[in-house]
Amino acid sequence: MLFLYNDPTAPEALLGETFAESGFDVSTFEVVPPSRAADPVVDVSFPDPLDYDVIVPLGARWAVYDDRLAERWVGGEIDMVRRGLDAGVGVLGVCFGGQLLATALGGTVTRSPHPEIGWCEVDSTRPDLVPDGPWFQWHFDRFTLPPDAVQIARNDRAAQAFVQGRAMGLQFHPEVDRALVERWIAEDTGGDIGGLGLHPDDVRVHTEALADDAAARLRLLVAGFIGLLDKDPQHGVHGVR
Known about the structure:
Layout (H helix, E strand, L loop, with lengths): L1 E4 L8 H8 L5 E4 L23 E4 L9 H4 L2 H14 L3 E5 L1 H9 L4 E16 L8 E11 L6 E5 L4 E6 L2 E4 L7 H9 L5 H4 L4 H29 L13
Parallel strand pairs: 1-2, 1-3, 3-4, 4-9
Antiparallel strand pairs: 5-6, 5-7, 7-8, 8-9
Helix pairs in contact: 1-7, 3-4, 5-7
């Protein structure tokens, strides 16, 4: 499987560990290197998606609809995802990656009137795929569902998860552990947390209280996603479509 590092500050963290525990050989690909984080308009030659069983586009601080990026690597990554899906590769999109996946499948991404940071409740209609509970969020954009996708989780601010064949898109960050949350807090030089009326210490307290349970639910989520790979991608998930 391949994790796409769209942003050097958004690694796979617990997702990598969980897929490795499930028997996958984990590889990573750096889309925007640390040296270009201040100016992410770069040219990228993506790997062949057919070399992998699963591709996981990860998060990023940028917008999928940024024209500068769409003309460069975002457009190339969308093409990669589409080629992979057409060939039966599984795709799990996380936050920015979920928005990119939604775009690849015909959905849209817009600025959200209700951004989310911190641990937010998510209601699921398919707890075998996305367990209910608080999941970590850090997003200012949100996706609309692709035409043939089925929403399986949401809250009052955004659609939180969808499935379509072997693809699953997430708006939240199931991969976070304590260290990654602390890194994002430390790197919040733009004041995203304070801008939403939150305090970093509140995010830390909630993370300490919820991280272990979220890690357990992540294992269920990964197991559910792996189950999608055994289904016929032309007929969707049993009981969903």
